[in-house]
Amino acid sequence: MIDLSKLVPRLKVSGRIQLSGVPQGLDAMLMPQLAGHLGNVPLLHICVDDQRLSTLAEQIAFFAPDLEVLRFPAWDCLPYDRVSPSADVLARRISTLARLNKKSNKPCLVLTTVNAVLQYVVPRETIGKSSFSAAPSQRVNSDALQAFLGSNGFSRVGTVLDPGDFAVRGGIIDIFPPGAENPVRLDFFGDTLESMREFDAQSQRSTATLRKLTLTAANEVLLSPEAIGRFRTGYAAAFGGLDLNDPLYESITNGRRYQGMEHWMPLFHERLETLLDYLPESPLSLDHAADDSMAARHEQVAEFYDARREARDKGSFGAAPYKPLTSERLYISETEWKQLMADRTTLAISAFESPDSSSISFGGRRGRSFAAERTQTGLSIYEAVKTHSEDLHKAGKRVLIASWTEGSQERLHTILKDHALAPVASAATWADASTRDAAIVSLVILGLEEGFETDNLAVIAEQDILGDRLVHKARRSRKAADFLSELSSVSPGDLMVHVDHGIGRF
Questions:
Q1: Over 50: is that where the pLDDT of 290 sits?
Q2: Which H or E run includes 92?
Q3: Which of 25, 57, 309, 318 has a CA-to-CA distance to 237 between 20 and 30 Å?
């Protein structure tokens, strides 16, 4: 357990608090404890990027597998892009906002990124209104359900593959709800919903029976009559009148979704909010170097906006004219962000010790690397690991050796036993490792680029021992279903490049 006694009294005071001596790995131990102390107030942590978010979520799952962890990723496209965010990203974002829009008594940790938190999001009332619930044996108007799906961002397809898809075949409606792992099949007899079954999108085989289904919007831009009306009015105000030759305006006016229309999201809503509006009482915590990432993001947004505006003014287009909205309508400005942080508790996490006397130190530091032993001939790196582990035990520290995968964990286990590093045993979670005899070296699956130490714990990372040889996960082989999934994201009229015939229209 990490001692929070110095931090807890300052959590109710607005302003920035520096947390020093918290290397990566130790922060994954700290956050669940802090979230547990906050009770029903979620903790919002801001990662530098999506890769860091994914890695941190996996680390936290090791230390606190029962903690509710919500991910709110950024759009996986550039600012002012011509393409829309992927269906998976939109589904994850919408499901997280829908969860945050409901009160819960359980501790919760929300993980987001610099790019995501600096962008405005749909308002809470929009998320609250976009809901549809059903249960077996109820009377459900299938036409009303299809109308709800169509006006709330779901795409009608032949076969459901991605979140946000739905398909209709007679009395059967397949839906892939945002945030769900698998799609759902609704079987109707007239207006009576006879059954609901979860099924695998690839094999189309049922996997479970459901008792209740609650649907939320599948997109941050909805094409309801009210939204289209707001778009038309906002378009005229933003760009000095209507342009019937603009394919964006023409598509939206006729109720058709347009590739990349999310980049004009402010025109579809009366107002937008921030992610922090969904978490009015939550303290913030920032990744090490998050401030630098925020400055870089603001520069990137300004650069892309200037490029779009310059191209519009010069009329130099290789495609349909692009009329960008000002960055202040889509993204939180640097001044506004500083004010938002000043109005609540902000925990700035650093891997290093700080000379500032007001900083709260947790005493963590980088663990030992065995790089020198790897470069010297005649030395056994595993004998060095054994000797170092014995020294750590003598210093009263519990020792963990962290691997990235099960395969590398098994190899290390065999090699270390051969070198008489005993006792050695695998542990699935931090609870397993921390409750056993401290003399046992625990082999765990925990993705760390480098190990860390505290006064009573030492985690040796696989990369510390073996370098880069076993760190990277194997690339996932591509299956035929992946190509079908990508093909389903292409709409008639989209520009494509054919391997034999060049540029064409799908």
A1: yes
A2: helix 87-100
A3: 318
pTM assigned to the model: 0.85
Query: Which element (helix H / strand E) includes 128?
Result: helix 124-129
Cα dihedral: 479, 485, 487, 491 (round 10)? 180
Locate 57 and state its tokens. 């979520």
What residue spans of 77-166 are helical by DSSP H? Answer: 87-100, 114-117, 124-129, 142-151
Q: How far is CA 274 from CA 79, 116, 243, in A?
A: 17, 10, 30
pLDDT above 80 for 316: no
* C-alpha to C-alpha distance for 395 and 390, rounded to whole angstroms: 9
Which amino acid is residue 371, in one-letter code? A
Give the range among 188-202, 353-367, 467-481 with minimum mean pLDDT. Answer: 467-481
Pairwise CA distance, residues 98 & 70, whole Å: 11
Chain Cα centroid distance, residue 278: 16
Q: Alpha-carbon torsion 294, 296, 299, 303, what sign?
A: negative
> What are the tokens at 450?
């480098």
Residue in the block written with tokens 């890695």: 55
Residue 276: pLDDT above 90? yes
User: What is the rounded distance in angstroms from the CA atom of residue 471 to the CA atom of residue 265?
Assistant: 40
Bridge partners, residue 192, by sequence: 139, 189
194 phi/psi in degrees, rounded to 5: -80, -40
CA dist 262 and 484 (Å) reads: 24
Assigned token pair, 250: 């023409």
Rounded Cα–Cα distance for residues 417 and 413 (Å): 6
Q: Give CA–CA dist 496/502, Å, rounded.
A: 8
